[in-house]
Amino acid sequence: MWTDRLSVVRGDITKQIVDAIVNAANSSLLGGGGVDGAIHRAAGPDLLTECRRLKGCRTGDAKLTDGYRLPARHVIHTVGPVWHGGTTDEDALLAQCYRSCFRIAREHSFASIAFPSISTGAYGFPVERASRIAVRAMRAELESNAALRQIAVVCFDHPTFQEYQKAVAELAS
Ligand code: ADP
């Protein structure tokens, strides 16, 4: 079952040993707070140098870089939607983030990928709603891409961890 290849863990995404970790970046790709800041700090300054060459990223899209000093080999930078109360296509844009990351993972035959909870920090997307969108996209990918052996959702805090666990349990039943 798809749930055998999906884990929800509590932790720090910068410590994950995977083919790619996903960064919840902003559209400049020039670094920010939250998970973005943590990834840039852990990867070192060469990550910012590569990001500068990418000329930004639109909401819902994703771009690939090396992982530099991270244990992960690559970083997939995606830009989640800012929550505006659900009036500006936020659900569709968030789903598109996950699909964009999976498109890159498929193109490069990545077997393992770790995601943070995109958009639910500074961007204000309700985690209950975001987690269902995320896990639905993960289920679709796991069911259609056998080369993808493992997805980890790395949750920084306990409420986020609980919501993702609930989302997996709901969507598995
Ligand atoms: P966004 O701007 O997309 O909302 P944030 O970085 O503000 O992105 O928050 C996204 C999620 O990432 C939040 O749940 C936040 O607690 C979490 N987060 C922050 N630092 C880390 C980290 N080092 N590893 C994993 N998740 C993190």
List keywords for this structure.
173 residues; alpha/beta; Leucine Aminopeptidase, subunit E, domain 1; six-stranded mixed β-sheet; 5 helices; 6 strands; binds adenosine-5'-diphosphate
How are strands sequenced across the largest beta sheet? 1-6-5-2-4-3
CATH architecture: 3-Layer(aba) Sandwich
Distinct small-molecule ligands in the complex: adenosine-5'-diphosphate
Structural domains: how many: 1
Backbone structural class: alpha/beta
**Tally of strands:** 6
> Taking Cα atoms only, what radius of gyration do you get, to the nearest Å?
15 Å
Describe the main β-sheet briefly: 6 strands, mixed
**Residues in helix, %:** 40-55%
- CATH topology, by name, is Leucine Aminopeptidase, subunit E, domain 1
CATH class: Alpha Beta
For the terminal residues, how far apart are their CA atoms? 11 Å
Succession of helices and strands: EEHHEEHEHEH
The residue-averaged pLDDT reads 98
Counted by DSSP, the helix tally is 5
What is the CATH homologous superfamily assignment? Answer: Leucine Aminopeptidase, subunit E, domain 1
Strand content: 15-25%
Q: Which overall shape is indicated by the principal axes computed on the Cα atoms?
A: globular
Which parts are unreliable, with pLDDT below 50 for 5 consecutive residues or more? none
Could you explain how this protein is built, in words?
With 173 residues, the protein is of the alpha/beta class. The chain has one domain (2-172): Leucine Aminopeptidase, subunit E, domain 1 (3-Layer(aba) Sandwich), CATH 3.40.220. Helices cover 40% and strands 18% of the residues. The chain has 5 helices and 6 strands, in the order ββααββαβαβα. It has helices at residues 34-43, 45-53, 90-107, 127-144, 158-172, and strands at 6-10, 20-25, 62-66, 74-79, 112-115, 150-155. The protein has a 6-stranded mixed sheet with strand order 1-6-5-2-4-3, sandwiched between helices. Strand 3 and strand 4 (74-79) form a beta hairpin. Helix 3 runs parallel beside helix 4 and helix 4 crosses helix 5. The longest helix has 18 residues, at 90-107.
